[in-house]
Design goal:
single chain, 321 residues, 11 strands, binds 2-acetamido-2-deoxy-beta-D-glucopyranose, lipase activity, signal, Lipase_EstA/Esterase_EstB
Length: 321
């Protein structure tokens, strides 16, 4: 009876996770003293769920390579709603494996309002802020490298943060500074849209900001003789003939890896990307120059993040599939 009770409590304890942020007060104080206050990495508008990570009285240093978790469009650092499930499952799992808040970092970008998803772009404001978050975590932990676990739009935002350089955004132009690729150990991209999204083709490329041709998810409207209707068909032989979002194209052709080890994960049943992840004959979630990939048969877009903590951990720590 005693053992049964323990088992039930354990299971219950895991499923009703009450992971709480925000950034530790030690990290918050450090950010204040180092001119990062204006970036609001804490995001107290989400109470304890807007961010995570930092040293405490008992955890005074990062002994493992820190991991930065970067969420997708309309999600949040930790769970703020049934749709915005954050990184709770991943952070919980990494902590059962010995990681601590001194080594696990996340901040929220934009907001969790799904109705505003169409307004998000890879813009100067968000990219600059996230780049500063990466720089802050590196400087604060004193670690030579960090690893990154990213989901959905967090994949392409993260790749640009790492590549640095000029952003010609819909909100203006900016320069993120030099590439920090050599400071990234493992980069994991889950369900990203590295070659755009087929549902951004045709008129949607003009209607929704997130689909725009400059710094959005425009996949290209045609490929040779094929019209946009063929974008998601696996058999369409496109071979790089389509012109797609300029920022995405530049990131691909820059031909530099986003870390020492790069891995891609996606699901053929992704309900947001659709078409089995295919965009003009290629899996759009395959980060260029990946060292390996894990493909799921039946996970949704959000489940590809929520239900794969074990694989995320495996890739970050073993650096192989
Ligand atoms: C892109 O941004 C850079 C850096 O701010 C700027 O010098 C350049 O003129 C911009 N290019 C375009 C096409 O807007
Ligand atoms: C990505 O860039 C490589 C060259 O670095 C090119 O061969 C390939 O066609 C590009 N893929 C896409 C989808 O643009």
């Amino acid at each position: 009876m005693f053992y049964i009770c323990i088992a039930i409590l354990t299971v219950f304890g895991q499923t009703s996770s009450s992971l709480t942020g925000p950034l530790s007060s030690d990290f918050q104080n450090w950010l204040k003293s180092n001119q990062y206050s204006s970036y609001d990495f804490v995001r107290s508008d989400y109470g304890t769920k807007g961010s995570y990570g930092g040293f405490t009285k008992t955890l005074t240093k990062a002994t493992k390579t820190p991991v930065i978790f970067l969420h997708g469009n309309s999600d949040s650092a930790l769970k703020t709603s049934s749709l915005s499930t954050g990184w709770d499952n991943s952070i919980d799992y990494f902590e059962t494996k010995g990681y601590t808040s001194a080594e696990l970092y996340a901040t929220s970008w934009q907001d969790n309002i799904a109705a505003k998803a169409g307004t998000r772009t890879h813009n100067c404001k968000d990219l600059t802020r996230l780049r500063k978050f990466f720089e802050a975590v590196l400087a604060y932990t004193g670690s030579a490298k960090v690893s990154v676990v990213s989901h959905s739009m967090g994949v392409t935002l993260g790749r640009k943060v790492i590549k640095g350089g000029v952003v010609n955004g819909t909100d203006g132009n900016c320069d993120l500074g030099p590439s920090i690729t050599e400071k990234i150990d493992v980069f994991v991209g889950i369900a990203g849209a590295n070659y755009g999204l087929c549902n951004c083709a045709g008129t949607f490329g003009l209607l929704a900001a997130t689909c725009n041709k400059k710094n959005g998810f425009w996949p290209g409207d045609a490929c040779g003789a094929y019209t946009s209707t063929f974008c998601g068909r696996a058999a369409t032989p496109c071979n790089g003939l389509s012109t797609y979002s300029r920022l995405l194209d530049e990131m691909n052709t820059s031909n530099n890896k986003d870390g020492s080890y790069v891995f891609s994960m996606w699901s053929k049943a992704d309900d947001l990307i659709g078409n089995g992840d295919i965009v003009w004959g290629r899996p759009t979630s395959l980060v260029p120059l990946s060292d390996g990939k894990i493909i799921y048969e039946s996970l949704t877009h959000m489940q590809s993040k929520e239900n794969t903590a074990v694989d995320q951990y495996k890739l970050v720590t073993s650096k192989k599939v």
